[in-house]
Amino acid sequence: MLEISGIKKSFDGTTVLNDISLEIGDSQIVSILGSSGGGKTTLLNIILGLLQPDSGKIVFNGSDITNTPMERRGFNIVFQDYALFPNLTAYKNIVYGLRNYPDRSSKEEIEALIDLLDLREHLNKKIDQLSGGQKQRVALARTMVMKPRILLLDEPLSALDGVIKESIKEKIVTIAKEFHLTTIIVTHDPEEALTISDKVLILNKGKIEQFAEPSEIIKNPKSQFVNDFILKQLEVKKNNIYKLFSL
Ligand SMILES: Nc1ncnc2c1ncn2[C@@H]1O[C@H](COP(=O)(O)OP(=O)(O)OP(=O)(O)O)[C@@H](O)[C@H]1O
Ligand SMILES: [Mg+2]
């Protein structure tokens, strides 16, 4: 269980996260949803240990890890821009983290992950010879071979669309459930958050608007922002499609 309590963070005197508290159970998939600049990446980086909060506490499985350095937390992230090594092949990117931890994944486990993510035919390609979706899957494999205790994903699907987006979405859920991984996914797409997650955290200007199961958010949006940001967006999408086909 990950317990986050009273997290505050400011940059240059501007509050970016204001008193963020939530609990995430083991093996849960949680989405962090909100508009651009709302503090999503900042919160993810604080959980990862890349950034220190100004105040507040993070407890993981009963231990206070607020001051534990990133390497010792055992969490791992897929960054918003993937941050792959352009000069290495897809395969070398995937196994890169294992050079210091060779026992973390066996050869068989690496092979299974490559097959699960449909990467076999791309292993010898350099990163810039890959499509966005392929890069995304390499980034996911590179993170997964490290067997993180918590998987953090920053906008993993934002560069993708259509069928590829749906297939990677499914793969993320499959991996999370198969590995019993606690997974935190940042997104600004309400549909993605509501379909992929056990619970959704809605952030607006550094404050929590609602933290609940998708069905609860749809039935009982807790604030005007939730209603406008989530439900109106979905409504607009639906209406556009209806209009398009004159339904
Ligand atoms: N290192 C930093 N120094 C100064 N300001 C920062 C820094 N990192 C983030 N900010 C500011 O904090 C606010 C929140 O940024 P953050 O990256 O967390 O937003 P976000 O919700 O992830 O947005 P997006 O959806 O656009 O990725 C923004 O106003 C941003 O300009
Ligand atoms: Mg961000």
Question: What do you see in this structure?
Answer:
The chain has 247 residues and is α/β, with parallel strands linked by helices. It is built from nine helices and ten strands. Strands 6-7-8-3-9-10 form a six-stranded mixed sheet, with helices on both faces. It has a four-stranded antiparallel sheet with strand order 2-1-4-5, covered by helices on one side. The longest helix is centred in the C-terminal third of the chain and has 21 residues, at 224-244. It is globular. 35% of the residues are buried. Residues 11-12, 16, 34, 36-42, 188 line the site of adenosine-5'-triphosphate (ATP).
Short structural summary:
The chain is α/β, with parallel strands linked by helices and 247 residues long.
Q: Work out the strand percent.
A: 25-35%
Q: What is the CATH topology classification name of the largest domain?
A: Rossmann fold
At CATH level 2, the architecture of the largest domain is: 3-Layer(aba) Sandwich
Low-confidence stretches are none
The rounded distance between the terminal residues' Cα atoms is 46 Å
Shape: globular
